[in-house]
Amino acid sequence: MIEAVGLTKRYGERVAVDNLSFTVRPGQVTGFLGPNGAGKSTTMRMILSLDAPTSGRVTVNGKAFTALDNPMREVGALLDAKAIHGGRSAYHHLLCLAQSNNLPPRRVDEVLDMVGLSGVARKRSKGFSLGMGQRLGIATALLGDPRILMFDEPVNGLDPEGILWIRNLMKSLAAEGRTVLVSSHLMSEMEHTADHLLVIGRGRMIADCTVREFIDRNSALAVRVRTPDSAFLAEAVTRSGGKVAAQPDGALLVTELPLQRVGDLAFEHGVRLHELSPLQASLEQAFMELTRDSVEYHAAVPSTSQEVR
Ligand SMILES: Nc1ncnc2c1ncn2[C@@H]1O[C@H](COP(=O)(O)OP(=O)(O)OP(=O)(O)O)[C@@H](O)[C@H]1O
User: Fold this and answer.
1) pLDDT grade for 304, boundaries at 50, 70 and 90
2) What does the longest C-alpha to C-alpha distance in the chain come to?
3) Helix, strand or coil for residue 305?
4) What's the fold here for domain 220-279?
5) Which tens digits make up the pLDDT trace of 219-251?
6) Domain residue spans of the chain
7) Is 3.40.50.300 the CATH number for 2-216?
8) In the prediction, which pLDDT does 301 show?
9) Which of 8, 9, 11, 198 to mutate to test the pocket of ligand 1 (most atoms within 8 A of CB)?
10) How far is CA 114 from CA 130, 136, 138, in A?
11) Over the stretch 37-57, which tens digit does the pLDDT of each residue have?
12) Dist CA 65 CA 7 (whole Å)
């Protein structure tokens, strides 16, 4: 379990983490989400006592990280996969860590096997691809067989196979009853991996809830309608308080009216329907909606649908 209370970090005038209080529980994957610069890495560094909070505190299993007797057995973390001595082989990198942390050397082969690096274990890690480097970083985190695991943007730059592997690994670690905290700015990724979400923007907590609750609370349900009488139905919907956007495939996307009401309107106006379906916004859409005001840098986004009226 990881617990933060009023956790705050300032760098001069800049407040990187602003009064965060949260609990990361065992047995589930907790997604730590936020746009670039939201304060995710700073929070993770404070959990590991690599940065000192300006105020507030964070504990791991009830203790400050520095007070843990054998940190590698309690917490494993992947913060920066590149922070590895390139001249060493994966095997020797892990063996050094095992020896200096009083861990059994057989654990090195076990974790190399778990991350699929056994075949290249004796090669210098300097020649490793991004994906191999990530796997080695994950092997390092798993070395002490810790009950708490933290991964900072673990899928960054990975190919689809690597992403799927990491996703399944996170889930299986949580299914074993471990505490798994994984940061990402990729909402679509968290949608498939996380059970619980901590969403931050500009250092502040925006949401602390399950993935389902997050989508339900933050995304309006839209209704997709296809009809040969689009213009007529669009007018009727708009008059009844709905909003209509034309989709590139000719369908209409209706918001602010429930599906039943759209169906009834079509019936009342004698409009033939070829499709009437609910469209739940994805986590990506819900997240962008929620953090719109807390993104550090905005760029113009080309619109994908056209307002009808
Ligand atoms: N050592 C530092 N000195 C000054 N400012 C810092 C330092 N570290 C982080 N910051 C600032 O604190 C804020 C939070 O940064 P942080 O790296 O924690 O965000 P993040 O959510 O991990 O972002 P990203 O997804 O881009 O990695 C940013 O505005 C960043 O510029």
Assistant:
1) very low
2) 77
3) coil
4) Alpha-Beta Plaits (3.30.70)
5) 667 899 999 999 999 999 999 999 999 988 999
6) 2-216, 220-279
7) yes
8) 47
9) 11
10) 18, 10, 10
11) 899 999 999 999 999 999 999
12) 14
29 token code pair? 């994957």
Q: In what order do the strands lie in the sheet with 14-24?
A: 14-24, 2-11, 55-60
**How far apart are alpha carbons 7 and 21 in whole angstroms?**
6
Q: Give the length of the chain.
A: 309
Model confidence at 83, pLDDT cuts 50, 70, 90, reads: low
The position carrying tokens 């092997």 is 139
| Residue to probe by mutation, ligand 1, list 7, 15, 41, most atoms within 8 Å of CB | 41
Q: Which residues line ligand 1 (CB under 6 A)?
A: 11, 14, 16, 34, 36-42, 185
How do the residues of the chain divide into helix, strand and coil, expressed in percent and rounded to 5? 40, 25, 35
Q: Tell me: the pLDDT tens digits for 130-143? A: 888 888 999 999 99
